[in-house]
Design goal:
By secondary structure, this protein is α+β, with helices and mostly antiparallel strands. Among the domains are: 52 residues, no CATH class; 113 residues, Outer membrane lipoprotein wza fold like (Roll); 76 residues, wza like fold (2-Layer Sandwich), CATH 3.30.1950. The strands form 5 sheets. It has a 6-stranded mixed β-sheet, with helices on one face. Strand 9 and strand 10 form a beta hairpin.
Amino acid sequence: MDMAQQMITSAPVAPNTGVSVARLARVALVSVLLPALVAGCAMPRGAGLRSEVLRGTDTAESDVQVIAITRESLAEIQAWPIPRPERRHHWTTTGAAATSRIIRAGDTVSLAVWDSQPDSLLTTGEQRSVTMQSIPVSSSGRVFIPYVGEVRIAGQTTEQARREIQRLLEPIVPDGQVQLDVAPGSRNTIDVVTGVARPGRVELPEVSPTILSVLAETGGISSTLRNPLVRLNRAGEAYAIPASDLFSDPANDIQLRGGDRILVEEDDRTYIALGAAGAEQVVYFEREVITALDALSTIGGLSDTRADLQGVMVLREYPESLVSAVGAAPRKAQVVFTFDLTSADGLFAARRFNILPDDVVLATESPVPMINQVVSMIRNIGIATR
């Protein structure tokens, strides 16, 4: 551009016109460059204009649905089914109250029967008690007690089983007293698999521990994990909760049961940020729920000099099985949600619009900087009239 400007400046005057050749050259050059500049062809950009992105979406043939998000339209959107619901976390509320350990198959019990009667069938002479060690609980949940036979104790607490055995022994030792100890088997343990300092198997104590106490016993959550997610596998069901939510709300610190399995992993949910924003990158969820405004603030906000505040968009794909022509559902599989952040209505709506995993948050370019750049280039050429 500097060479062209020098050539134009040094050009002679056109004969018989009184107009310098330099000025005619400027006019000719601008007439060639201006259409391309206005069209943006010569402008490097990080994203399209709002009109470019939405071009063709208002036709019947378009396979993209466009919805302007306002507080009114948001109520309808929130009733839509959620794509990939398996990627949303949910936590169990059962087991919040402290409970006693339940005897299970595979446990081992030790039994002591005390009897002071001189003619006792169980004790002799100076002996006042008889001990039966390491009695396994069978797969059917039973233990064998001499003079009584098989007794089913699985599913009972230690105290309930003690009372039941003592009741069954009354015909033999009417004044007998029973002591019962239970050593947990594999079904009465908790496996902490990964994400803690000391993974391993934790025996279930007499009173069921909470999940935070078990995490503490195994050394706590690893400090190297980004946004750690605590997973609980229980009886064929899978639950998950961000560690921050587990720490902040005591109601989430549930009691554990035998057979529970705990895994602590990084939350792998992401969204993509593109366009005239502070960053263009794959962004990991920092907490369970991220709103549109949260997403923008996480990436450093919108560019002051490039972004179109009326052209912030969220692109989302729905499975075809959720698309419907009636009811609270998307009409097309590909949906573009648009936000006007120049209005209070748009800002409040963006604050309540939840970002889902795999969404694309797009900040479109404003046309104003492009126009300013065109004017600046024209001024540099020297076309401005003096």
